[in-house]
Amino acid sequence: MTRRRPLRAELRGSVAIVTAVGMTVIICTAAIALDMANLYYLKSVDQRVVDQSAIAAAFAYQSSGSAATAQSAAVSLAKANGAASATLTTSIVNSPSGDGAQAAYVVISAPVALSGFGRAATKSQTNASGISSFTVSASAYAEIHGATPCMLATQTGGAGVTATGGTRITATACNVASNSGVSLSNGPTLTAPATYAVGSISAIAGSTINGSQFPNSSKQPDPYAGANLFARLSNAFFTNPTAPGFPSMPSSPAGGTGATCSGTLTVPGNASYGVIQTTSYPACSLISFSGGGTTSMLGLYLNGPSVTLSFGPGTYKIGYITISNYGSTTITLSGTPTLDIYGALTLSSSQPITITGAATWNIEGGISDGASQPVIFSNGAGGSVSSFTVAGGISVTNNAATFPDGTYTVTSAGSSGYGLAVSGGATATLGNGSFDIAGGISIGGGATLTIGGALNGTGLFEIPAITSGDDAIATGGSSMLSIGSFANSDINGPVAIAGSAALGGGIYTVNGVLNVASGGGTITASNASFIASGPISFGAGFNAVTVNAPTAVSSSTEGSISTVALASSSSTASTVEAGASNTAVTGVVYFPNAALTLDGAGSLNGGGNCLQVIAQSIALSGGGSLSTSCGSLGVAGGNGSVTLVN
User: Are the beta carbons of 403 and 358 closer than 8 angstroms?
Assistant: First the structure.
């Protein structure tokens, strides 16, 4: 008879078996959990390594253009971070951000051994000895942002940068880029730390490219595309000035005629007269207008020896004023009188004319200064300034004329076809103030015009309208134009400069062509931006052209315009022609809709400073040169940036 074990003992055995099995399961589960935690930890470590490796690869490619160099840089950094046994691959691809940039794509992978329990836990799935390891991998994209080039052709398709003949493109410390191709043929030289092209880069028939080359690169963005530089050209800000206060022709006084001065003459105010005049014999030495109220006269005619006139306070309505003395003329103004002149102010004296004291001048028949000796207007002491409102233009011929600080409003052109004309070798100087000159400005060959800047920081310089077919500003050979500084100088028409010019600071908005034509001379513009609707051209024969852009200009219409020297919205090419061999521009030259062309010995350079050229295309031929030293805008491997992207 078999003896049965007690039930308690059997239960103890069963519990022991269950406990043993349960402990095994718990231990295996814990081992798997530890393996999984280790895998996640190692993956996070690998992600940090691959991020850093991608950045290293991107910078290496940015400076060298070599995928092999990028791979080597990524491997070196991974090893330095303890990933010596990892497998690492690097490729240069389009960035997943979709912005057109390239990126270094780095993948790192390495086997991670499982614990013994981990291998045992997977045995049932493998029918073997279990899985001894898992492969952990991580990847990263590092987007490559090239340094902003100092020469950029924005067109897509074809060749954005072309050069033929003995031409030179030199960027000593910055890059050249084309959003299409780069093509050199028949001997030109391109020198830059790096040359980028979305398409091909070619140099044939004795042409040379010095520096790294990056064909098939990413498209470079136009850094001024959203700057709203041309907003002012489309705004209706050119307004013809009106002429408030022009007088009616004084009527013939009832019961009286004019007066002739012999010796001295006193003209009481608040009365009407005919023509008041001087004669040679007997000589007139003094005419005194006592002022007060309104004094009317059909005309004031001075034709004799030296004479002095004085005008007291009040309003003077005068049919015309003609001064043709063979002696000197002195006019003193007190109390800031108003002189309403229906006809013309004609100055044709053979001796000097001096007008002292501030006044309000309203002249409907224009100012004609053909005197053979200097004519001087001055405000005198006291701080008041004069105001000139003139229809029929201001003309200065054959002498030196000086006008005071004040406000100048020319409402229509004179017989010359211009609102302000200086000719015959004359010199005209206008003081500081505000200038609104319809009809435009003409300076004849050998003549000089100087216009002061804004008075006390306020004032405008504006040419609101021109005679059809004329230029808004036209200067002849050997002439000189000087304009002071204004926040905005608005010119509603073409500009043609054939002589010298010295232009003050501010934004010059030109609604038309800006043509520095053949004719010789020197052009300087300091802290100035020129923004034109037409092409900008520099012709042959100039000794030097120097344009320095402002560091930044802010306006409520355009926003901030930083370092822009020359900009044109035209679809017609802007040119630097043969013979314009020393055109130096500091700042940005921006022609987004047309080519910049240099031909013959045409030269455009940065004058030892920073010149950045952004144009739809850049074309050189026949010995032209384009050069700059512009490290602040980016050196290959220097000022570019790299960003991790998903």
Answer: no
First to last CA, the chain: 80
Pull the structure tokens for residue 361: 């001048």
| Whether residue 337 has a cis bond before it, omega within 30° of 0 | no
Neighbours of 364 (CB within 10 A): 22
At residue 156, φ and ψ (nearest 5 deg) are -110, 140
Structure tokens at 367: 């100012």
CA–CA distance, 162 with 564 (Å, rounded to integer): 24
pTM of the model: 0.79
Domain boundaries, the chain: 19-145
d(CA 6, CA 443): 131
Can you list the positions of beta strands (E) in 64-219?
87-94, 102-113, 133-145, 151-153, 159-164, 168-171, 176-178, 181-185, 189-197, 201-204, 208-214
pLDDT (tens digit per residue) in 562-574:
588 999 999 999 9
pLDDT given at position 276: 94
Cα–Cα distance between 275 and 273 in angstroms, integer?
7
Measured at the alpha carbon of residue 176, what is the angle toward residues 170 and 177, in degrees to the nearest 5? 155
Q: Which of 315, 262, 304, 305 is nearest to 287 (CA)?
A: 262
Kindly indicate the confidence band of residue 635, based on its pLDDT and cuts at 50, 70 and 90: very low
Helix, strand, coil fractions of the chain, as percent rounded to 5: 15, 45, 40
Work out the percent of the chain whose per-residue pLDDT is above 90.
53
Gap between the Cα atoms of 365 and 412, Å rounded: 10
Q: Which amino acid is at 159?
A: A
Compute CA 132 distance to the chain's CA centroid, rounded to the nearest angstrom: 67
| Integer Cα distance of 70 and 56 in angstroms | 7
Alpha-carbon separation of residue 195 from 45, 161, 220, 457 (angstroms): 38, 10, 12, 45
For the chain, count helices (H), then strands (E): 5, 56
Q: What is the pLDDT of residues 20-39, one digit of tens each?
A: 444 544 444 444 555 555 55
Q: Using CA atoms, how far apart are residues 341 and 347, in angstroms rounded to an integer?
A: 14
CB 46 within 8 A of CB 38: no
Contacts of 408 (CB under 8 A, 6+ apart): 388, 390, 430, 433, 434, 435, 436, 437
Neighbours of 96 (CB within 10 A): 12
Tokens found for residue 513: 């062509």
Reading the block at residue 291, the tokens are 């002022």
What are the E-state strand segments in 404-520?
A: 406-410, 420-423, 427-430, 433-437, 441-443, 448-451, 461-463, 473-475, 480-483, 488-491, 495-497, 500-503, 506-510, 514-516
Q: What are residue 191's DSSP bridge partners?
A: 170, 210
**Coil, helix or strand at residue 435:** strand
Sign of torsion over alpha carbons 276, 277, 282, 285: positive
Contact 312, 269 (CB under 8 A): yes
DSSP 21-39: HHHHHHHHHHHHHHHHHHH
Count of residues in the chain:
646
DSSP output for 211-229: EEEETT-PPPP-TTTTS-T
> What is the C-alpha separation between 63 and 61, in angstroms, rounded?
5
Decide: 136 and 109 in contact? Cβ < 8 Å.
yes
143: Cβ contacts below 8 Å, ≥ 6 apart:
58, 95, 97, 99, 101, 102, 103, 642, 643, 644, 645
